[in-house]
Amino acid sequence: MKRRLLAALVALALALVGCLAVVAYVRAADERAIAGREAVWVLLATTRIPAGTSAAQLREGGHVERVAMPAETVPADALGELDPGLDELVVTADVQARQLLLRGMFGESTRLSGGLALPEGRLAVSVEMSAAARVAGFVRPGSKVAVFDTFTMQEGKGRIPSGDGLSLRPEANHATRVLLPRVDVIAVGERGAAGAATSAPASGGTADADAAASKAGVTMLVTVAVTQPEAERLVHAAQTGMLYLALLDDTAQIEPGPGVDNNTLFP
């Protein structure tokens, strides 16, 4: 009887030692995994946040949640909380679900029209673009672009549009000129349609839909913010020629000029 009791006690002690060893191993593995990775709190959007939403509305509406992430993977301007100093500022473009909230997403409130955040004194004008004309889908809301116009020239009138679109006649002469040197893209796609966006997506979503549209060879609407004179030129050019966009950065210098035609295309 004593032997059986002793054997049971020994077995129990061995089982306890084994459990403690497993716990110690797991804890050591966790410590190794997070070694050198300081965790920080960041804010993630839980749903899509429309442009024009204020920080105060975000705090009250439950559109964000705090999560811990390794500090080395988090941008320097990621927000860990919505400071009251941001209450009067708004997100200047749509924020997609599961996207990090960054300080740079907030700015002064702009006028909203039809769900689009318009810069003060600007009009929103949409033009239909092929995938190539919108730089293979890399033109996104927030992009700065130059607009080029290719048109059929009036005979004997220099590089002036004939007004009847691009002619396929062999004898027709075509020209390409800078129409607008620099404008802001504020939306891509039709509102409510797959692929529509008023801000660049974090991943997937609009980018995937745009890629699918590009492969299918379909066109997509690109909406830009322009002044009245720019709107007049853009609408007119869309009716009489073919538009093409070029992506710009802050260093690009685009100067309007006479452009090129069939006779001057090559040096």
Polypeptide structure, described:
The protein is of the alpha+beta class and 267 residues long. It is built from four helices and twelve strands, in the order H-E-H-E-E-E-E-E-E-E-E-H-E-H-E-E. The chain has two domains: 71 residues, Antifreeze-like/N-acetylneuraminic acid synthase C-terminal domain (Type Iii Antifreeze Protein Isoform Hplc 12, Alpha-Beta Complex); 146 residues, no CATH class.
Number of strands: 12
The sequence of SSEs as H and E is HEHEEEEEEEEHEHEE
* Secondary structure tally, helices: 4
How confident overall, as mean pLDDT? 78
User: Structural class of the helices, strands and pairings?
Assistant: alpha+beta
Write the layout of secondary structure elements.
Elements: H1 2-34, E1 39-45, H2 55-61, E2 64-70, E3 90-91, E4 106-107, E5 111-113, E6 116-118, E7 123-129, E8 144-152, E9 174-188, H3 206-216, E10 220-226, H4 228-240, E11 242-248, E12 260-261
Antiparallel strand pairs: 1-2, 3-4, 5-6, 7-10, 8-9, 8-11, 9-10, 9-12
In short:
The chain has 267 residues and is an alpha+beta fold. The chain has helices at 2-34, 55-61, 206-216, 228-240; strands spanning 39-45, 64-70, 90-91, 106-107, 111-113, 116-118, 123-129, 144-152, 174-188, 220-226, 242-248, 260-261.
